[in-house]
Amino acid sequence: MLILQDNTIFETVKDPNMQAKRTRADHIPVPERLNSFNEIEATYTKEQAENEAARCLKCPTHWCQKMCPAGVPVTDFIAAFRGGDIEGAYKLIRSASTLPEICSRVCPQDKQCRSNCTRSINNQAVGTGNLERYVVEQHYASGKGEENAPSTGKKIAVIGSGPAGLSAAQALVSKGHSVTVYEKDDRAGGLLEYGIPNMKLEKSIVERKVKSLESQGVKFVLNTAVGAGADTGSGSGSGAVDITPDDLIKDFDAVILAIGTRNARMINADNIALAKGVYTAVQYLSSTTKSLLDSDMTDGKNISGKDKDVIIVGGGDTGNDCVGTAIRNGAKSVTQIEMMPKHMGNDIVTAPHYPKIPERKVNTSQEEARMVYAKDPHIYQATVKSVNTDASGNIESVTIVSLEAKTDDDGRLQMKEIPGTEKTLPCGLLLIAAGFSGPEKKVTEAFNVATDARTNITADNFATNIDKVFTCGDCHTGQSLVVKAMVEGRNCAEAVDAYVS
After folding, report:
1. Over the stretch 388-404, which tens digit does the pLDDT of each residue have?
2. Which residue of 13, 349, 383, 428 lies most exposed, with the fewest beta carbons within 10 A?
3. What is the C-alpha to C-alpha distance for residues 170 and 163, in angstroms, rounded to an integer?
4. Roughly how many angstroms between the first and final C-alpha of the chain, as a whole number?
5. Helix, strand, coil proportions of the chain in percent (round to 5)?
């Protein structure tokens, strides 16, 4: 027993599991997963979950909770689970997270809660995400639904069904409001459905969340363009406006814009605009997912890297998703061009409470690339300088150039071309995974909402300059993590609830 500074009593965990390594969830072996798009990591078994939960020391500092963007009470829900109260553990998770079945799978816990676990000073951190996922799956298996407050009679429209939109819908319907979600694509989920590949997030998980929301009373209106044409989605692509902002503002007590960032960044390379065989990462990934869901990849409508030299520009998570997808396509080769130096940011860092070496996430796509091609697919400190085509405009190769890392007078890192280092690589498919910038202009202009210099929608406590219109997620903050979009949706729902009440 220990008396803390606030005079509360800290009781140590009885019979903790002091094994140094984290309990690893079952994985599909690399050779088996190359021929399928099945989710790679499995949910903990009961024995695995109990074993890992016992590694949590329930330390009084709660750094894991403090470093979670959602503020999930990690040690408390783990303690409830250890005590046999799974539903109590689930309620603790849901007190902070509106999308725990999603965040437990796709959150970068190695950079957040897990990287600040006290156990990681000398050992591996507690598998917080794995435990959260287990508790949530047990809740679903129990058949217990979500609870709604008594109906308020207020009607809220949510535009966009990505993580921010779903989060806002979950929070609002739980408060008793009537919620209608409008989505331009043919399926709900936005980024979760068409931006994250099935190997990382099984689409049945997204569909289950949508059905859960429907059971609470949320109405989903799909294939519907609000205030702009549906020319960039995965649905009909008709370009028609199906419902206007004026109609929404008239018919609903509040409207939430959660439209994400659809403007994919391109690179400045010679001849790239005219070349055939150049796509953004989201075009590539969404076409694969849609073909998988529509026909189990038999309709031939996906952008494919089969038998091609695939080059991916971008070394982040989306670039890695393209690597894994290209391997499953049967690509002849996969090369990933990364502007930044190797191991950038992996030096020893000082966390708020102790100096430590951060965890390094093993990316499954990189594992697969090493097995299939017997090498790291990366070329670091380089960029594509020009795209070379045949007489018909089909891409044949790219010319890359090496970059030198320098800092300017303000200490900012600058990557400069090194003359004479140009190199030509064969390329039959060029994928640009350079992120996104701002929401669709046609939508923001239709609603007449104010935007900042980066074209993101500006707001004061989520309220835009237009009465009754609120905003949240990437279209408000700029491109960010799923968990942060979820938090934006949750907090925006609080602001809307206060407004309509």
Report:
1. 999 999 999 999 999 99
2. 349
3. 10
4. 46
5. 35, 20, 45
- What distance in Å separates the CA atoms of residue 27 and residue 130, rounded to the nearest whole number? 13
Quote the pLDDT of residue 346.
Answer: 46
Task: Judge residue 103's burial from the number of C-beta atoms within 10 Å of its C-beta, 0-12 exposed, 13-18 middle, 19 or more buried.
Answer: buried
Per-residue pLDDT of 302-341, as tens digits, reads: 999 999 999 999 999 999 999 999 999 999 999 999 999 8
Per-residue confidence at 347, pLDDT binned at 50, 70, 90? very low
Select from 469, 494, 498, 489 the least CA-distant residue to 191. Answer: 489
Q: Which two tokens stand for residue 179?
A: 């919620």
Instruction: Answer for the pair 349, 111: CB distance below 8 angstroms, yes or no.
Output: no
Give the whole-angstrom CA distance, residue 500 versus residue 177. 9
Query: How big is the chain, counted in residues?
Result: 501
The pTM is what? 0.92
The letter for the amino acid at 194 is: Y
Strand order in the sheet with 378-380: 278-280, 429-432, 309-313, 333-338, 378-380
pLDDT at site 290: 97
Alpha-carbon span 271 to 265, nearest angstrom? 16
